[in-house]
Structures are given as structure tokens and as C-alpha cells.
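A favour, since you know our C-alpha cells better than I do. Just paste the record in under my message, thanks.
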Amino acid sequence: MVFTISNPHARRTGFTLLEALVAMVILALVASSAAVGLGLSSAAQHQARLTQLAMQAAQQQVQFLMEKPYDSMSDHAVVEPVGTMLAPPAAGGVERTSTLGGAWSGLGRRTTLTDEPLTFSQFNAVRIEGTRIEIEVFGPDGTIYASIRRHRTRETES
């Protein structure tokens, strides 16, 4: 009986252990890079959605204040903590009774009203009496996602 240890002319098939390990490391690097990319994409998309919702909430508040009688505007200078932002009035309604739910429930809103004249320097420094309206919409960590500043002129009686 003849035993041969190796045949130098025989053809090898398959991978060596080292080749398999190198392939697994490369595959792991590619997979982790893809996972990080997806995570960053998801976070950016969430941030953009919050910014869009915050801008809508700020615009709703400005519109609500502009429709109110001038003298009753100051009643609405409040801080609405996260999850308690009031919804716009129902169709035909005047007052807001419900809170904004859904994705808006993760946001809060600060409304500041300051009596401040608006001066137009290009028109011989004409001063118009009125109120500066500032709306900030923020998240649970205090991050401000939207900020709007408007001026409302005091209505004069004719």
C-alpha cells in the first residue's frame, strides 16, 4: 500500500481560511457603511419633517393672530409646552379648543407680542404704531425648528 502526502500537480479547489476571513471582513465593512448611510439619511429626513411641521405651526399662529381683533391679540402671547399646541379654529369657528395631535404633538410653540413702532427710514422716517409678533416652534430638547417675525399695524379708528 502506497500513501502519498501531497500531489504537487493536483488542482486545488475552494478557498483557504485566510481568503474566507478577508472576504468576510470586506463584506462586514461594506454592510456597516451601508447601515451608517441609511441611519444618517433617516435622521436627516426626520429633521426635515420636523422643520416643515414647525413652520406650518408657526404660520398657523401668525394667521390666527392676524385675524383676531388688534386689542385682543395680547391674550394669545403664551408658551405652549411640547404636546399642547392649540389647533386652528374649526371651520367657521373663532376660538381654538383642541390641541394639534399626531406629529405636531412632539413640538411646542412660544408666542411673543411686543408693542413696537415700525420706522420706514426711506420715507422720511415715517413711524407706524403696532405690535411685533414673534413665533418660535421648538422640540422637546429646546431646539428651535421654526421662527417667524411679523409686524401688525395698530388699526386706527376713522
